[in-house]
Write a structure and sequence with these properties.
alpha/beta; TIM Barrel; Oligo-1,6-glucosidase, domain 2; Immunoglobulin-like; 3 domains; 8-stranded parallel beta sheet; 21 strands; globular; binds alpha-D-glucopyranose
Length: 578
């Protein structure tokens, strides 16, 4: 009897264990969900989006007019480049009044209407915050330069000339690369890491910091949903301005980025402003190394949500790039953030030439396929994707015939600096045509009408002549256009959290044409296959990969035989896996 009871007991135990096995939740990867991780960000360059008052410059009313277009892209957040009052030495990155709107763009009332229209459509707004420097036409600087004992003097970095010339500092935008500018009014030099019209603010001065926090509150109280901190990694400086090693400018990030004090400022900003609102924060630049990048976004440190690094976007050069290198960089960044922190993923922004011309292939034969491929990439990586206006259409670089056609002072000064130092002007112009950031700022191509429907007047920057083929209207009703592919890809990301939170694992790291990776979140597994070349590639997939459904494909469906796939030039495909 006892024996039977024991057998029954053991059998019951086995059954109950098995039952438990099936009812217990499967082992889950814990993900820390946040709206800004799940968001797709659409970066919009207001100067070039839509002009409604016929002055050749885009404006806020133009953005309002196009809100339904933005909504229909499926994106969640718009990041606007600076729209504050500015004399436009650097297209709004030189701010003369942080609480007002640039005249060419409209008024504060337009801003309120725009923000309301965004929120009604479920779109959030991220504003650019430019506080490493102001404009030299800001009232603070006008006061500061007027006398040495002015209360605003210490808002900026001054070096009295009687102490001799200050130690050399490199300027990113100056035609001579010189960051100190002599000002005779007070017989002193002021510091400008960017142009002479962008004097650097002195973050050691608590008054400056409080001014900035007040400005942030002003916009957050209006309802903005986040800030992109322009050039913020440069704000902390050793204000004794010691001599730096000869040639330091070749590696200036080591001396300029994330210097002592920066984290204290960020902690203070977080405590005073960021933590008080439901806003996202992203820094331009991620410091000198992974440690810096982590420290900026480590949740426990209470600083920022995200930063974005330039390692990836800097890879494409006018003489080409290596896909193995690109894969390595993106994979290293991913693995450094696999357990903690969060990345931004992008291939373009307003400081870069067009993505398809740099990383894809803008020839008529491959432009569409390669644009779609690049959008597949950005929207299937781990991290928050930043999509730049016009890239949803496959907008390309433009051909500038001479440096005089380029309004951007930074590009012009860079060109003249190189030529003055002996570079060949023709070669230099080739580089400019490949990489100048005005390539990425040409007006949005809405239709085939004059100036691509951007303006009825002369546009501030040439419209790309290819707007007759590449424009919104032409693509709107074509189901496999770049535009509609982009929309599908955004939707795919929304429908599949594995594309947002899933682990990333690269396959074939040494393959020179194919970028392939798996994304895994619990039971969900997908495989992304991207052919970054003009060649057809046969690819034998590993045995443990078992394809299930094709989720998206920029060309015709794949033929799969014995786990071998044939990828057409610039083919991009995502499969779910068994
Ligand atoms: C950032 C901006 C760039 C600007 C510079 C100076 O790098 O992205 O457009 O010119 O800062 O503000």
């Amino acid at each position: 009897m006892k024996k039977i009871a024991l057998i029954i007991f053991i059998a019951a135990l086995i059954i109950s264990c098995n039952n438990n096995k099936s009812t217990l939740p499967k082992e889950t990867t814990s993900v820390d969900k946040k709206w800004w991780k799940e968001a797709v960000i659409y970066q919009l360059y207001p100067r070039s989006f839509k002009d409604t008052d016929g002055d050749g410059v885009g404006d806020l009313k133009g953005i309002i007019e196009k809100l339904d277009y933005i909504k229909n892209l499926g994106v969640d957040v718009v990041w606007l480049n600076p729209i504050y009052s500015s004399p436009n030495d650097d297209n709004g990155y030189d701010i003369s009044d942080y609480r007002n709107i640039m005249q060419e763009f409209g008024t504060l009332a337009d801003f309120d209407t725009m923000l309301k229209g965004m929120h009604e459509r479920g779109i959030k707004l991220v504003m650019d915050l430019v506080v490493n420097h102001s404009s030299d036409e800001h009232e603070w600087f006008k006061q500061s330069k007027s006398s040495r004992d002015n209360p605003y003097r210490n808002y900026y970095h001054w070096w009295p000339a009687e102490k001799g010339k200050p130690n050399y500092r490199y300027s990113l935008f100056d035609v001579k690369g010189e960051a100190w500018k002599y000002d005779s009014i007070t017989n002193a030099y002021y510091l400008h890491y960017f142009s002479q019209k962008q004097p650097d603010l002195n973050w050691e001065n608590p008054k400056v910091r409080n001014e900035v926090y007040d400005i942030m509150r002003f916009w957050a109280d209006k309802g903005v949903d986040g800030f992109r901190l322009d050039a913020f990694q440069f704000v902390a400086k050793d204000t004794t301005f010691p001599k730096l090693p000869d040639g330091f400018e070749k590696d200036f990030m080591q001396y300029y980025a994330v210097q002592d004090g920066l984290h204290d400022y960020l902690k203070e900003m977080n405590e005073q402003v960021l933590s008080k609102y439901d806003v996202m924060s992203v820094a331009e630049g991620a410091g000198r190394n992974f440690k810096d990048a982590h420290d900026l976004v480590d949740e426990n440190r209470k600083e920022l949500n995200m930063a974005y690094a330039f390692d990836g976007v800097g890879i494409a050069q006018h003489d080409g790039y290596s896909l193995v290198h690109l894969k390595d960089v993106f994979s290293r960044w991913d693995s450094a953030f696999a357990k903690k922190g969060w990345l931004s993923v992008f291939l373009a922004n307003h400081d870069q030439a067009r993505m398809v011309s740099r990383f894809g292939n803008d020839s008529p034969q491959f432009r569409e396929a390669s644009s779609k491929l690049l959008n597949t990439f950005i929207l299937s990586m781990r991290g928050t994707p930043y999509c730049y206006y016009g890239d949803e259409l496959g907008m390309t670089n433009i051909e500038f015939n001479s440096i005089d056609e380029i309004p951007d002072n930074a590009t012009r000064n860079g060109y003249y600096k190189a030529v003055n130092e002996g570079a060949d002007p023709v070669e230099q112009m080739k580089i400019v045509n490949f990489s100048a950031r005005d390539n990425g700022r040409t007006p949005m191509q809405w239709d085939t009408s004059i100036n691509a429907g951007f303006t009825t007047n002369t546009p501030w920057l040439k419209v790309n002549p290819n707007h007759n083929e590449i424009n919104v209207t032409a693509q709107e009703n074509v189901s496999n256009s770049c535009l509609n592919y982009f929309r599908k890809m955004v939707q795919l990301r929304k429908d599949n959290p594995v594309l947002v939170y899933g682990d990333y694992q690269q396959l074939f790291p040494k393959h020179e044409q194919i970028y392939a990776y798996k994304r895994t979140l619990n039971d969900e597994k997908v495989l992304v296959l991207l052919n970054f070349s003009e060649k057809e590639i046969h690819l034998q997939l590993p045995k443990d990969i078992s394809l299930k459904n094709e989720l998206i494909n920029n060309l015709e469906p794949l033929t799969v035989t014995d786990n071998k796939v044939l990828l057409k030039p610039y083919q991009a495909v995502i499969y779910s896996l068994k």
